[in-house]
Specification:
The complex is a heterotrimer of chains A (253), B (377) and C (462). Chain B is an alpha+beta fold and 377 residues long. Chain B contains twelve helices and seven strands. Chain B folds into two domains: 115 residues, Immunoglobulin-like (Sandwich); 204 residues, MetI-like (MetI-like fold), CATH 1.10.3720. Chain C folds into three domains: 100 residues, no CATH class; 128 residues, Immunoglobulin-like (Sandwich), CATH 2.60.40; 203 residues, MetI-like (MetI-like fold, Orthogonal Bundle), CATH 1.10.3720.10. The chains are: A alpha/beta (253), B alpha+beta (377), C alpha+beta (462).
């Protein structure tokens, strides 16, 4: 279980990205974080694996305080938390295979991997991961030769290599067209059904309705809603997104 | 507002004019002298334009006659031959420093002529060079140079060599030497670029803000490396070579080291900028997988910067070839050293060969490097 | 059977082809780039080893040749061999030969000597404590005439004398001075009639330094220096030499040292040389650049010929370093900053001419078309459509060139072109490392400051 307690983040330039946010995530949930751009979704996700250091508050995962972990232990914790990014964050000039293998870096022998030598077992695992997202045939292409949807699938395969218990997905479909969005989210849903907790930030409400088991909404760094997707009515919607917002459906784009 | 602007512009113009006026004085500019002395340069330029590339075997034929100085110190030539290659002086003997006319008949036509004195002890002195015409005739006013040349009744002789080119054209010694030295130069550039790359590539990461500039220690290291690169980069390799030459004495080695040091700084700076311009996404992704810092760099940064690095290395090899052609002027070694020697010995044709070789190599490298870099991107 | 011969033939053929000409087998199998690359690599390697002439290194081209045959045969069997192996042979030979040719020998890097050079460099000779001088001298005749005048002199309360009044080379004299500063170190030295100082200390190579007593007087014996008459036209003619007494005391604060002053002058000359050269180069490069712009000159065959000629000239000039050009100008106008300035200018004409012409080639053709459509002639088109577009980039490139020229000007003195480089080589020659250090600091300062200024100026322009 992941407990987020009184989390706040103030950037050095004074911006308060998160203000006293608290909520719990049960194992096996598909939790979606919604909110406008700049509402603190990305900061929240990155605080969980401490890519961004929170200013105040605690994050406790399976009774371990992530926020207090020293660097070596933090890396140990991060191994179990996969992350999927909006911009895929692949090394474009490296092959798909290398990109996927790099998800394993927290586990392998530091010296051989520095030389780019990987065990047969890891390679096998990479092929399996790619097979799961349906692009095993692209293993030896360069990452930038792939389409956006395929690149995101490589991103998921990389996260799978970590053998994660938790996946953080930061706007995983914001750079993709609606049709591809569903295919990517279906992979995440599949993983979720296999027992991996997923915390995902999303833009489009229809996607939220379709995939989320629970929703947390942020506005200007403050948690303004927590509950199931069905509870988001017109009033709640206006509260989260502001008076002028119109609900847009991903499928209608 | 317009007044202020006019004032500002006037001020800037005045400053620029003043700067040029000061510069004119400081540089001791003397344009009339340039034009008056331009003929001096003409000889030089002609020599440079006719480099010493090919030679022919030269056949040397010598004719000589006894020429006592002063008169009466030794017997003169009894009779001058009237046919065949022969020398005819206007007088048969002369007082020291007296001038007389020397004519040569039926020598090798269109050949270079070297007139000299052969002293009784076998030494020679004063070579005058002239040219025979199509009939093998020449005339030249000669001064009786040796002050007292007769020793123990043996008079000195007047000797005339005719040098006739015969046989096939073949590469001259200068061309061979230039090629030899050019090899040294190119290797110097190759090795210094390689060594500099090996050192600069890892160091550049310390001078990249996105990698190093974290925490107190990191920031210190970052500024340390950055200022080291900036400082060393401000020296021309030749300036460095003066000190290295002083330390390691003569030869290509100090030039190589100086070039390496400056290249480390220059490449280090370029590399660190390439590292700073990478996409931070993959680095973040790797951190999120729990990869150790070194691995984050190895898998997240290195693959992104390799093409830029290669492009800069090739670019620098081009520059280093250019510099190593002249670094020999101060440190010794390579074509620059050879050029310096030729110029100090007033061997302008030889210098011309070296200059042409430099032009060709620099040109070729320029073309090659820009072509390869174009393909890379 | 027939299938076997069909596959065997290209195997044998390409093997044989590559045996006789490296890369030919690969070429015939359709791998044209591979074949060409192998041939080129082989020829370069062979040329290098033959030139170097040490038999050991022939192994490299031979191994490449063997690999090439193997590769050709494998290729015919449908499998290319990795290029890594011949690359390794080639690089090993190249670096091995290079290492020897460049005479790399790190054992020559004597650290004691390095320290001896570096230690004085930590104390750059730029400023010195401000001090005041108390100087007194007395004339003395060398060699003696029949009636030498008294070797005495009084000045501002100080008196000095030599006994006897004259002397020959190597003779001992007693010198006495009174009225100097009390208890102060005093340098005693000789000065010949031309004004050159000569040392009187141990072996005539050190300064004779003594201390005055509490009354400010001093008495000592000296020897007339052995070199006292070296510069005299006739050593038998008596002439007046001088014995000097010199005291210093700090007056607080600092002042520029002699070397520091020279460094400042050199730095000014360097920057000035670069400025003059850039200005001069600009004047010549602007008209030339129009002639070297393809879009303006490709109208008819005559102008195109001019374009090609100017371009070629600029390209040749550009590949001759300004240092080499400087040598020529040193011969023509003599040593000094003028020669260096001319060399920089000539090189810059070529460099700027190329940059300018590229600017002209890259301008927007729209305005040209528009002005031409109004019936304007060539000159009017240039004036109204071209010049307004090119002024900012021209200025930016000129400032950039000035920046580069300052860098080059620091070295042009090494061949006699004046400026700070000339000072540097002089100081190295006399082993004045403190001065060298001052020069290095000055160079770094000039270059870094100008780099910054030029970058800022260019930023404002574009």
């Amino acid at each position: 279980m992941l407990k987020i307690q009184n989390l706040s983040k103030t950037y050095p330039n004074g911006t308060q990205a998160l203000k006293n946010v608290s909520f719990d995530v049960q194992d096996g949930e598909f939790l979606v974080v919604i909110g406008l751009s700049g509402s603190g979704k990305s900061t929240l996700l990155r605080c969980i694996n401490r890519l961004i250091e929170p200013t105040e508050g605690k994050i406790i995962w399976d009774n371990v305080d992530i926020t207090a972990a020293p660097p070596a232990e933090l890396r140990h914790i991060r191994r179990k938390i996969g992350m999927v990014f909006q911009q895929f964050n692949l090394v474009k000039r490296s092959s798909v295979m290398t990109n996927v293998l790099s998800g394993r870096l927290g586990y392998v022998n530091p010296w051989t991997s520095l030389l780019g030598i990987w065990s047969q077992e890891d390679r096998q695992r990479a092929i399996q991961a790619l097979d799961r997202v349906g692009i095993a045939d692209k293993a030896h292409s360069r990452a930038d030769a792939l389409s956006g949807g395929q690149q995101q699938r490589v991103g998921i395969a990389r996260a799978l290599m970590q053998d994660p218990k938790l996946i953080l997905a930061d706007e995983p479909v914001a750079s993709l067209d609606p049709v591809l969005s569903h295919s990517i989210l279906q992979y995440l849903e599949q993983l979720n059904k296999e027992g991996i907790t997923v915390i995902c930030s999303l833009h489009f409400l229809d996607l939220v309705h379709r995939y989320a088991t629970r929703v947390v909404a942020l506005k200007d760094g403050v948690k303004v809603f927590e509950g199931s997707a069905k509870e988001i009515d017109r009033a709640k919607f206006k509260e989260i997104y502001g008076e002028e917002a119109q609900e847009v459906r991903a499928a209608s784009l | 507002m317009p007044t202020a602007r006019i004032l500002r512009n006037t001020l800037i113009t005045a400053l620029v004019i003043a700067a040029f006026a000061v510069s004119y004085r400081v540089t001791e500019a003397d344009f009339p002298r340039l034009f008056l002395d331009l003929p001096k340069g003409k000889e030089l330029l002609t020599a440079f334009l006719t480099p010493d590339v090919f030679t022919r075997e030269v056949e040397t034929r010598t004719v000589s006659l006894v020429f006592p100085i002063p008169c009466g110190s030794a017997p003169t030539e009894e009779s001058l031959p009237s046919e065949g290659p022969r020398l005819v002086p206007s007088v048969l003997c002369a007082e020291p420093l007296e001038k007389f006319t020397l004519e040569g008949y039926d020598l090798q036509p269109n050949s270079e002529v070297v007139i000299r004195w052969r002293l009784p002890d076998g030494r020679t002195m004063t070579a005058i060079r002239t040219q025979t015409d199509a009939n093998g005739y020449f005339t030249y006013e000669v001064q009786a140079r040796p002050i007292q040349s007769t020793v123990d009744g043996v008079a000195s002789r007047l000797e005339v060599d005719t040098l006739t080119p015969v046989g096939e054209l073949k590469p001259s010694q200068a061309l061979k030497d230039v090629l030899d030295n050019m090899f040294v130069t190119i290797f110097m550039a190759l090795l210094s670029t390689t060594l500099a790359t090996v050192i600069a590539a890892p160091l550049s990461f310390f001078a990249a803000s996105n990698i190093t500039r974290k925490g107190c220690l990191g920031t210190t290291v970052y500024y340390l490396f950055r200022s080291f690169f900036n400082l060393m980069r401000s020296y021309d390799p030749l300036v460095m070579a003066t000190v290295f030459g002083f330390w390691l004495s003569f030869g290509p080695f100090p030039g190589f080291l100086a070039l390496t040091v400056v290249t480390i700084a220059s490449l280090g700076k370029l590399f660190s900028e390439a590292v700073e311009n990478i996409d931070p996404g993959p680095v973040e992704a790797l951190q999120a997988t729990g990869a150790p810092p070194l691995h984050t760099v190895r898998y997240g940064v290195v693959p992104q910067v390799v093409p830029d690095f290669i492009s800069y290395i090739i670019y620098h090899w081009d520059i280093n070839v250019r510099i190593s052609t002249i670094i020999g002027f101060v440190g010794g070694g390579g074509i620059g050293y050879y050029l310096n020697l030729s110029i100090n010995d007033f061997k302008w044709h030889q210098a011309g060969t070296a200059i042409w070789a430099i032009v060709i190599v620099v040109w070729a490298m320029d073309f090659l490097s820009s072509d390869i870099r174009k393909r890379l991107t | 059977m027939s299938i076997e011969t069909a596959t065997r033939r290209p195997v044998v053929r390409s093997g044989i082809a590559s045996f006789f000409l490296p890369g030919l087998g690969q070429f015939l199998l359709g791998e044209r780039y591979r074949g060409g690359g192998i041939l080129l690599g082989f020829v370069v390697m062979l040329g290098t080893t033959v030139w170097y002439g040490k038999p050991l290194w022939y192994a490299a081209p031979i191994l490449i040749w063997l690999w090439n045959i193997w590769d050709a045969i494998s290729l015919a069997n449908g499998r290319a061999r990795s290029i890594l192996l011949p690359l390794l042979f080639g690089l090993a030979a190249a670096y091995g030969i290079g290492w020897q040719v460049v005479e790399i020998d790190f054992s020559k890097a004597n650290m004691d000597r390095a320290l001896a050079i570096l230690r004085p460099m930590t104390r750059p000779d730029f400023v010195q404590p401000r001090r005041e001088v108390n100087q007194m001298w007395v004339p003395v005749q060398v060699p003696c005439s029949s009636q030498p005048p008294a070797a005495r002199r009084e000045d501002a309360g100080r008196a000095a004398m030599v006994i006897p009044d004259c002397g020959g080379v190597g003779e001992t004299l007693i010198v006495n001075v009174t009225g100097m500063w009390a208890d102060a170190e005093t340098n005693v030295f000789w000065q010949n009639p031309i004004g050159n100082p000569l040392m009187l200390g141990e072996g005539e190579i050190t300064m004779l330094t003594l201390t005055t007593d509490e009354n400010g007087s001093l008495t000592t014996t000296i020897r007339v220096p052995s070199t006292a008459l070296v510069a005299a036209p006739d050593p038998t003619l008596p002439q007046f030499h001088r014995v000097y007494f010199e005291q210093y005391r700090p007056t607080g604060g600092y002042e520029l040292s002699f070397i520091g002053n020279e460094v400042l002058k050199g730095a000014l000359a360097t920057v000035s040389m670069a400025l003059m050269a850039t200005g001069l180069a600009m004047l010549f490069a602007i008209p030339l650049s129009f002639l070297a712009a393809r879009n303006l000159m490709s109208g008819n065959p005559v102008t195109y010929a001019v374009y090609v000629a100017v371009r070629t000239l600029l390209n040749i000039l550009r590949s001759i370093e300004s240092l080499i050009i400087a040598i020529i100008f040193v011969v023509i106008v003599g040593l000094g900053p003028f020669a260096g300035m001319l060399a920089l200018a000539l090189h810059s004409v070529a460099a700027l001419g190329k940059l300018y012409s590229e600017v002209i080639e890259g301008i927007d053709p729209g305005p040209i078309e528009a002005i031409r459509a109004t019936g304007a002639n060539w000159l009017q088109v240039v004036r109204y459509a071209v010049i307004p577009q090119i002024i900012p980039p021209f200025t930016a490139f000129t400032i950039y060139r000035w920046d580069i020229n300052v860098r080059s000007a620091t070295v042009i003195g090494l061949v006699g072109g004046g400026g700070i480089g000339f000072l540097l080589i002089e100081l190295i020659r006399v082993n004045n490392m403190r001065g060298v250090s001052a020069v290095f600091i000055a160079i770094a300062f000039i270059v870094i400051v100008l780099d910054y200024v030029s970058a800022k100026l260019r930023e404002r322009l574009v």
